[in-house]
Specification:
The structure holds two protein chains of two kinds. By secondary structure, chain A is an all-alpha fold. Chain A contains 14 helices and four strands. In chain A, α3 crosses α10, α4 crosses α10 and α12 packs antiparallel against α13. The two termini of chain A are 36 Å apart. Chain B contains eleven helices and two strands; from the N terminus they run ααααββααααααα. In chain B, α2 packs across α9, α3 packs antiparallel against α8 and α10 crosses α11. The chains are: A mainly alpha, B mainly alpha.
Amino acid sequence: MRYGKSLVVLAVVTVLMLLLPAVGPSNRVLSLATLAAIYAIVTYGIALLFGTGGLLSIAHGGLWGIGAYTAALFAVRAGWSFLPVLVLSVVITAGAATLVALMSLRVRGHYFTIITFAVAEGIRALINAWTPVTAGTEGIVVVAPVRVFGFDIRSNADWYYIVVVSLAVVIALTRLVVVSRFGRRFAATRDNLDLAASVGIGVSRLRLLAFSLSGALAGLGGAYWAYSQTFVHGDQFGAAASIVFILCMLLGGARYTYGPLIGAVIVVFMPPLLALPPLLATAALGVVFILVILLTPGGLASLPERLGQLWRRWRGPDPRPPGAGAAGDGAAAAVPTGVAS
Amino acid sequence: MSIFLQQVFNTLSSASVYALLAVGVTLVFGLTRIVNFAHGDLLTVGSYVLFLVAPAGAIWFLAGFAAAMVAVAVLAVVLERLLFRRTLVAPIRGFLVSLGLIQIIESGLSYFFTAGPRTVHPFIDRVWTVGGVDMPADRVVVIVGTAAVFLALTFYLERTKAGLMIRAVAIDAETAGLMGGPVTRTIAGVFALGGMLAGAGGAFGALLAPVTPFLGYALILKGFAVALIGGLGNVRGAMLGAVVLAALETVVITFGLSTWVSFFGFTLMIVLLIVRPRGLLRGVEAEI
């Protein structure tokens, strides 16, 4: 039972999340919570690439648009039922992500990030321009009856349950990938790509696979977005959406199991809690974002660890040999740069 | 023939703004490796300074133009001192900081100036026709003004000591520092220079098309496309890239595909990055 404790923690977190509708929140709180869970699903995909592989992808803001539009088109125009649409969105987005990876992984560092930026905006431009298929800038209203295993999905609470259960699966899955042999090899490509290649790791295939996997999560989040928001429009996607996901990721901490979740909850709930006018709320989010990058590069989830380090330093030199007490994500104090390879 | 010349003229006027933006981007990247996506918003700030200082009149435009250059240069240096200086060790953090800045500047601008588009027309109604080519005075001012700015910039970079220092830091900051050069001051100076160019671009851009607070975000993508087409870090490359992108856009619009303009722009950028990652002229970065 190596992962027994983590599984128990995840089960507790999931049950706590599932209890939310029972305490009788307003519809608004419930839909915000659903939104946070959807953001978290996509953010886990981005965090897998950045936290483990050191790849900062901005393409996901466009990729989840592919997921959302696949869902919208097949649910509304073709009348497919929910589960096939979900699977198709994931598969098509993963396929698109593979294509993007084939193009973008040929270059490194800044060039990778900028290509993915162009991809995100290219997808948005494509959605807005390809009127015969996507209805262009009019967007698509997504109204389709949804049945899952014989249950009709209608209320906000129903959607919340579905998305949260998916999120729990996503958290477990990404954690498994990170600690697996695959994940450790992927981390090796972050620390030193050339060295990883020279010890016989097939870096190209590895990074391609990781990118497709994280694209699949973007597709899943996009499909849920289309169903739960009941309206898709090209301008919901693109680099601006990526910025929100990256904010979620960095705020929480890309390398921590619950980092993306914490970040998504804060990003979604902070503006309404501050009750600022929308514009000032956006500005406040920007300020928080910059402060987090400059002050806690490891994200909020790294704070307990950081405070622990400060506490030990303040108490004086540690009598134990170095590293004896370190556990978990101990090396996550510095943000992975991924550009210095 | 006159249609062709007309298109060349139109291309040059939009290329001017792209070039002013992209040269700033490429200079800052060349010295710091920071991908500053907030640079497009510096340009919009320049436009709004122009609106404040010179709402009308040709003489006032000069004052507004100068004010935009100075104000944006000051803003750029303040941002460098406060934020970007702290990210020089890990340039990707500088990039992330600039993403936060976009949100602050754009929502700030629309909070103070409302989100609606604004224009100025100081040289209103004057159109010269030379050899069948219609040349609105606004656009002539933009093209001639940009040419003058770039002449001054080239002189500064290639004929002055400060320009020499900028080129030295771009090639190897560490060695330049060991030789006793003021590296941090040069980096702040390059932010100021980029800011001045963005201020000029903002003032000129306001003559060409309506400006909204969210324009910077659309512009910066073009700015980076241009800088990448030319080769990141290469000033002449950025000027060339601006003409290439503007020409592509003119062609796409001429074929009646104006909704597809941005899609073709990004496609050109992606294809070029894959085929020729260092751009048409060589960029600075060795890690490809």
